[in-house]
């Protein structure tokens, strides 16, 4: 600021006024100061200014790098945070970087609150984190932890998908499980309940898996191997998420199985992946934008009012029918 003031021929106090947007400088002076700052490459350090006031006004977001749906959530987090006057800092978890390390990095950068997207962490970690800072868990509900929760109504989403397949005439419907993935237990229970409700208990089958493309590929190979051994293919597969559904589609396509003529495939999330195939993926849409808005608002409202207790928002899912579902093959 001293360099800008010297080159512009004004006081440092006047430079400060200009960068804070306060009255006290003529428009001509304001433009000269800004031009000089641009020439010498000076940018005001808004973070330092906020920290001097005891606030960073920054929301930290922990996400899993490989999860496409987390990208959708982040796209919704940025505009809502900006609208409320907050910055966003991202920290990714990978196979070699734990969630805990990603969260600690956010806290070390003085984020005032942490948004956890699809956390796999133990409930004890979430409970401990909720005691240290304002935290919001998105896509995963952990009872009794002192954090806000934002998630879709998993059971209703699966019921919509199962009703869609049964109405098309499917009976041999397999569920590709999501393992420990967020929402997987609820989706698994809802699948089994739907099979019982439709009188299809004898056809009920859950294939162990996880929310990855590899899991879908391996499930496809398993079903194809069973077919070669004489066991008929299921007529439909409800995958745990879009990523595993895409892996399954790849395995089936490579083996010459036509979707949906020979088998229908339904995903869950409606992430941007569902639009990238030559044939669109039938899936259950989680409203990422609305979930992001809830998460940011919950965090900010608790920051502005520390007496406010954590809350829960349940977002309604919606069935999106595209090209990977159709009537079962006639045999």
TrEMBL record:
Record-linked SUPFAM superfamilies: lambda repressor-like DNA-binding domains, Periplasmic binding protein-like I
Q: Which GO terms describe its molecular function?
A: DNA binding
UniProt cross-references to Pfam families, sorted A to Z: LacI, Peripla_BP_3
- Keywords on record: DNA-binding, Transcription, Transcription regulation
Give the compositionally biased regions (Basic and acidic residues). 304-315
| Location of region: Disordered | 304-331
Q: Known InterPro entries for this protein? A: HTH_LacI (IPR000843), LacI/GalR-like_sensor (IPR046335), Lambda_DNA-bd_dom_sf (IPR010982), Peripla_BP_I (IPR028082)
Instruction: Enumerate the spans annotated as HTH lacI-type domain.
Output: 1-53
| PANTHER family given in the database record | HTH-TYPE TRANSCRIPTIONAL REGULATOR GALS (PTHR30146:SF109), LACI-RELATED TRANSCRIPTIONAL REPRESSOR (PTHR30146)
State the protein's name.
Answer: LacI family DNA-binding transcriptional regulator
